[in-house]
TrEMBL record:
Compositionally biased spans, kind Polar residues: 8-19, 46-64
Residue ranges with Low complexity bias: 438-447
Stretches for region Disordered: 1-105, 438-458
Top-level division of the source organism's lineage: Eukaryota
Full protein name: Tafazzin
Amino acid sequence: MPKKRHPTQFTKPPTTAPASLSLSSSSSRNADHHERSVNELLANMRRSTLNSSPSPALQSQLHASPSVPPDLRSILQLPESPAPPPRRLQRRFINGRRGPPGPPPPRSWITFAESLHVASSPNYFGWKDGTTSTLRALPLPGAYYPKEQSLIAMVLRRMAVDWDQQQDWNRFYIYTLPSRLRTALIAYISELYHLGLNARDLRLILQGPPLDELEQYGVAPPDLASLNEDVRDLDLTGSIGRMLSVKEVGDLLFPAAKAPEQDATVLESWDAPAPTAAPLRLLPNLTRLSLAIDPTIAKPPSWKHLLAIASKLNTVTHLSLVGWPEPSLTPNAKHTKVISPTTGQSVQYSGTGTYSHTLDDDWTEATLILRRLSGRMYSLEYLDLCGCADWFPALKYVVRDDGNSSACVDWAGDWGKISTLRLTSGYALPEWQESSWAGQAAQRQGQGQEGARGGSRPTKAQIIKYDEWVRAASEVEKHIRVQRGGRGKWITVERDVLPEYAKKVLEWEAAQQAAR
């Protein structure tokens, strides 16, 4: 027979617990239990958790024996007390400040890479005959720039583009940034800002607003002795000659000493020297300096101003002079002549005349200037002279005085530490894939017509000039190796290589001249 089914008595669970499961406590104690706050409940849970299963570190602290003096420990032969656990290290910024709470930022936000700075819009400078070049200043080795795809690089690039607003709204915060970010910001402003970097902007980033402005808003002035203590790089590529001069850079980095205030007290001795206030260097630990310029600027930099501050740049190990003109103290007087008061004859006013390099092959002035520069900046290990191919012969020229003494750039002594020298021209011949130059020479006459295959055809004048630059760089390399003679460091000279088709053109031209 089927079993009988009895319906359940309750359709939902009872609201009160059965008597068998009730706690043996009074009703007042249950009321107190329900009236306890949330903080008391959480504290009770923590205590129960610690009492139930304490951690090993907590067990060692709970069961550790009390400390005993060393003398009693040795008498009683007790073991050494365990050392306290090390404190958790706190994340700190580069300048020593405590980092924000929370997990560390992603690596891509804070990672700095070496020599990864690539210009977003490279500058192309023109040849005299209209062809383009690829003259660009490479970042100095060891200089730190944020990765191109990192958040820091994006923010700094945006700040450089909007520098008009940033220098006004954030003028009280920019100089408080970490040193690496400030040096990278200087490089981005020099590269991306349409007006370039001027002396006022450079002073704002490196030492903050003027003192009267800080006092007006109640801001404490920064300590310049420690503010730029860890600044190693200064990239001014593209700003020199536009809105910034070498003299302004020297006045900013090496301010003149202020005269001491007159004291009413009498000196103890007349022979005691008068107290003088030593000038404070803005960047005392500067090691990398880039003064690269655009060769097409209207106002080229002054070698005289560079020599004036060169003796104070004795800590610089990496220097970039990309695009600088030929060394001369009076470049504007190259075609000027004066009448000598003693002989009454017309003489050249400048140390370099109109035909000094082309006909006379005289590089006396340029060589003496470079020799003075090498004697003052004797700590150089890297020198970038890209785009200076027109005065490469001055690097190996020997100035002879009456046949008894001679002077040249000292590559074994003053510049004996240089291990990398860039002697590239900064220009590239147009890519051309024509294989039969000689067969079509009579038809095209080598004057800038379009080739049969691949791009514009280089002219014969371009190839000859490019070959002169390559030969000059090769001769400088041989001169340096001979002068050192095994002394000093091994030097690596980076120079251009003549394409194969250009070599064939020169061989064909030499054969044609020999046949005539």
